[in-house]
Design a protein that fits this description.
With 49 residues, the protein is mainly alpha-helical. It has one domain. The protein contains one helix and two strands; from the N terminus they run ββα. A two-stranded antiparallel ribbon has the order 1-2. The radius of gyration is 13 Å and the shape is elongated.
């Protein structure tokens, strides 16, 4: 995830064992990460593991 050209961190989607994720769920996760990166990038925040 990045915001304002800076690396801020990452999200990880973990399905239940043996389960397959739907394409729509993966696209939703990408959209949420983009929005979080944009919001955090505008505040100057960083994420740490």
């Amino acid at each position: 995830m990045s915001g304002n050209g800076r690396y801020l961190g990452r999200f990880r989607m973990c399905p239940a064992s043996g389960a397959k994720t739907r394409r729509q769920a993966r696209l939703g996760a990408v959209k949420l990460a983009e929005q979080a990166g944009s919001a955090l990038g505008s505040t100057g925040a960083t994420l740490e593991e």
